[in-house]
Amino acid sequence: xxxxxxxxxxxxxxxxLAYVGLMVVVxxxxxxxxxxxxxxxxxxxxxxxxxxxxxxxTDELGRDILSRVIYGARVELLIALGATVVAMVLGTVLGLxxxxxxxxxxxxxxxxxxxxxxxxxxxxxxxLAVTLRGPGTGTLIVAMGVLFAPTFARIAYxxxxxxxxxxxxxxATAFGAPTxxxxxxxxxxxxxxxxxxQVSLTIATAILLESGLSxxxxxxxxxxxxWGSMVAQGQRYLSxxxxxxxxxxxxxxxxxxxxxLVGDALRxxxxxxxxxxx
Amino acid sequence: MTQPLLxxxxxxxxxxxIRDVSVEFGGGRRWKAVTHDVTLSVAPGETVALVGESGSGxxxxxxxxxxxxxxxxxxxGSILLDGEELVGAGEKRLRQVRGNDxxxxxxxxxxxxxxxxxxxxxxxxxxRSHRDVSKADAEVRAVELLRQxxxxxxxxxxxxxxxxxxxxxxxRAMIAMAMASEPRLLIADEPTTALDVTVQAEILDLVRELxxxxxxxxxxxxxxxxxxxxxxxxxxxxxxxRVVESAPARELFARPRHEYTQALLAAVPRLGSGAASKAVVxxxxxxxxxxxxxxxxxxxxxxxxxxRAGDDLDISVAPGEIVGLVGESGSGxxTIGRLAMGLLPxxxxxxxxxxRDVTGGTRADLAHVRGAVSMVFQDPASSLDPxxxxxxxxxxxxxxxxxxxxxxxxxxxxxxxxxxxxxPKDWVDRYPHExxxxxxxRVGIARxxxxxxxxxxxxxxxxxxxxxxxxxxxxxxxxxxxxHGFSCLFITHxxxxxxxxxTSVVVLQKGRVVEQGxxxxxxxxxxxxxxxxxxxxxxxxxPDLQAxxxxxxxxx
Amino acid sequence: MYSxxxxxxxxxxxxxLLVLTLIFLALHLVPGDPAMLLLxxxxxxxxxxxxxxxxxxxxxxxxxxxxxxxxFLSGALTGDLGQSFRNGQEVSTAIGERxxxxxxxxxxxxxxxxxxxxxxxxxxxxxxxxFDSVTSVLTSIGVALPVFVFGSVLILVFSLRLGLLPAGGxxxxxxxPNRHTQILVLPAVALAVGFASTVARMxxxxxxxxxxxxxxxxARSLGLSRRAVFRRYVxxxxxxxxxxxxxxGVGTLLGSTVLVERVFNYPGLSSLLVESVTARDYPVVxxxxxxxxxxxxxxxxxxxxxxxxxxxxxRR
Lengths: 278, 556, 316
Fold this sequence. Notes:
The complex is a heterotrimer of chains A (278), B (556) and C (316).
Chain A: H1 2-8, H2 11-33, H3 65-101, H4 103-117, H5 122-133, H6 137-164, H7 167-174, H8 179-215, H9 227-235, H10 243-270
Chain B: E1 5-6, E2 16-27, E3 30-42, E4 47-51, H1 58-65, E5 73-81, E6 84-85, H2 91-97, E7 102-105, H3 109-112, H4 119-128, H5 135-148, H6 154-157, H7 167-178, E8 185-189, H8 197-214, E9 217-222, H9 225-231, E10 234-239, E11 242-248, H10 249-254, H11 259-267, E12 289-298, E13 307-317, E14 322-326, H12 333-340, E15 348-353, E16 356-357, H13 363-372, E17 373-376, H14 390-400, H15 407-420, H16 437-449, E18 455-459, H17 467-484, E19 487-492, H18 495-501, E20 504-509, E21 512-518, H19 519-524, H20 529-537, H21 543-555
Parallel strand pairs in B: 1-11, 4-9, 4-10, 7-8, 8-9, 14-19, 14-20, 17-18, 18-19
Antiparallel strand pairs in B: 2-3, 2-5, 5-6, 10-11, 12-13, 12-15, 15-16, 20-21
Helix pairs in contact in B: 4-5, 4-7, 5-7, 7-8, 8-20, 9-21, 14-15, 14-16, 15-16, 16-17
Chain C: H1 2-29, H2 34-39, H3 49-59, H4 65-78, H5 91-127, H6 129-144, H7 147-161, H8 177-211, H9 214-221, H10 226-263, H11 269-278, H12 282-310
């Protein structure tokens, strides 16, 4: 166990883990750690570069970019976590049922629901939802949650299919375990490792998608700061003041990267078969 | 450490001579030896068996000869092929030797063949790797090679993919590849372990036939003393990475010198030893399990038709009786076990368990079955939930059926049961991965005993274990049976285990009963051709007797 | 093989029907009057009754549901996708004009991703050591790069600072083939970088898995050279999972063009989609979504067929 842990935690991944920890702090305590109000305009210092007054500079309205990034992180993570939880619960149940019962249940869950949802590139389905419901946090969480559910469903399904054949599952049936116990007490704990890994990867994907939507102006509604819309704003000043774009852009990249690396670490920590994956 | 018992080196020059070979795994500065100073030799035309239980280092030694070890392994010592040193030889030279002078066949022909290429492609690859032959000529030769290994319909089989062949046919294809350049030495790594006993006999006959025709030497790696007795001229016994004894086969079986060899031979159940079950059978009362004209079907799905796995089955198990269910893969023996456990429904006929007709398979029927019947599973690696302690696993049946509810009661019952199967009581909090295969199988038995069953279904409970462990588990099983007097449906492919344990035998083939009766009667005087073939194919660990049986089998 | 292909196509057709049904239901199952929803600007301001009536008429919302469903299905299958709310243009015409441009972009990006990703991943698996470690870090970053951020950086560096390539726009091939190609480079690279990283990672892990298969040892035992074993056994078998990854990747790319076309101001199908979503031009949004979904399903069928060609075990 200790060796596996040592193997899972490369220096890069430790940094990523620390970064994710920092993100959680920011999520909980944005007003405390943020240097100023993200909406306060310091008109005298419009488009200022990084410096003492504004650590990461200001935007075209003179708003402090660091504060906006911090508040943006809050929204970003809230949506990403929300969508991931929805996806995990929905997908795991679908995959568990489809894999365990097979037959018509499998057709309905895996073929009809999952395959149809996977017949769309992710962003397209969210755009459809946004067209109908208008942009907003709730729409995003639900739409992205539904959208990412198939990935969890596929993983859970594949795991159930292989775990189902193992004798201890048959033993549970033979020794009279009720169906609910078999599904949630015997199978679920034994398929949880790859699902946990997927949680981290899904958070990364959700941030990628949400920031993209906000970039298009179809995600979080302004004036709530969001990384995507900050990048979109920054594009207008790309030639003269690239920091307006680069700062929020860098945070998007770092955050996605960190969650991806944590996912990799979880994979090699939890799943002994993937010894080759770094 | 006792010195290995070695015979004097043969006077004739050996084809293969392995001296002080150690194989180490690791990398960088840390290397861990898995075999230590292994020495053995193979003379031209000779068959040498390298024997040992799992972890003995026999396969690693064999793979070291051609340096087919994984990338993180290294070999030291000296390996002489016809006087030429192979340790330290360049990759280029080794490539010339591989498949040309020395060929290899592997245990699992399914995974040893590339699934995306046809049998013909594999053979052409083998033929052209050392000969400058045109593709067309190689294809002709491929069919010829398949014919030589008695592959049915060789012309069509060349176009088949590995997954389209049976296990025996795949192994024939593998042998055909090995024979492509008429090697001087054939290394066979557990070539028949994955096969049924009748197929095993055919494959061993084939190897012997090819050996006689080409004069090649054979180094066979096996754990099966019956196979050793069948084919080997000389035997090298390994344990924990070391050679413990090396002797001509006849001598080794007659007078094993090393205590490990003695223990190993003593543990092997032998067919025809006349050992009989000591179970006390009560035929007067109602049988614990009775099947009358039962058929079993695996349900189909929306695109796959159902599959009838058992038909017209009349089997009954009296109180205290141990019934051996014997058959090869696909005979339906495990299916019957699952039926008795209530895991499969009765498609036709009638099934009675402990006096109650449970054919209908209602909820109450199943509850009754679960109260009366219990099961020991085959694979100790997967029969216990890796996420639960063995104490929890043992008493789960009691909790699930509502017999015991409090954690404390479960724990003390688990301790009792562990004690029953001769495991330390304080192991209740251990996890399965901390236990050896034999220990896990004991836990499996303890779990099966938890509900105090009237009938125990044991599905090949020892087939995944080494012989010495198997013997101990079987002993424990008999003891518990005598103590508690439960009836048993013992499913196995091994006739010698049946002979040792069962009061009566049911021989199955393709889901139907071929023959049944008392163990002594069926094994001594089989009435059916299939039973006779099954008995004849099972190798016995005695070279003289086995030679005689082989002659009889080939004549008949 | 023949029946396998037919079966895959059958499944694909079924899937398209289900997809169309889902899109149809999306409009009708959303709580509230769809016409009202489409006209509200998210601020709760209600639309005039005349406007609502007009939208209802245009979408045929006054018909019985089954009739609507039938009209929707037959329309979609015959290419009649309705008219735009904004300018009354036939949706199919608008799509026909924009689609080839997006396909060109996606095709180029896929080509780059495969040509770079496969050899890169294979080499990383084969060489190991520092090259593998560097690859691992680079591909981790690659998959984490949002196209709109990376695209902006590309513009900043290659067009604003170095002035090598145009920052965006569009030129017809027939009018200015040179500029047409130049314009494509940056968006294609922006799209390809994440995709290439995914392909490289997949190839690497597939190759590593194949290297440990028993049949690789068999091939070595026949005396085949390391190179032959690697090429004819390891790489050949690694292709199957890679093909699947590429198939899924192309689909994701179809989605990512939404962002890239915005960054580079590229008038493709996706920018039509975004314009229409912003303007709540439902018929156009619906038409584009249908087009993309059908494309995606077709790609998946193609992947499945290719899978069957590569792996005999699946074509039963």
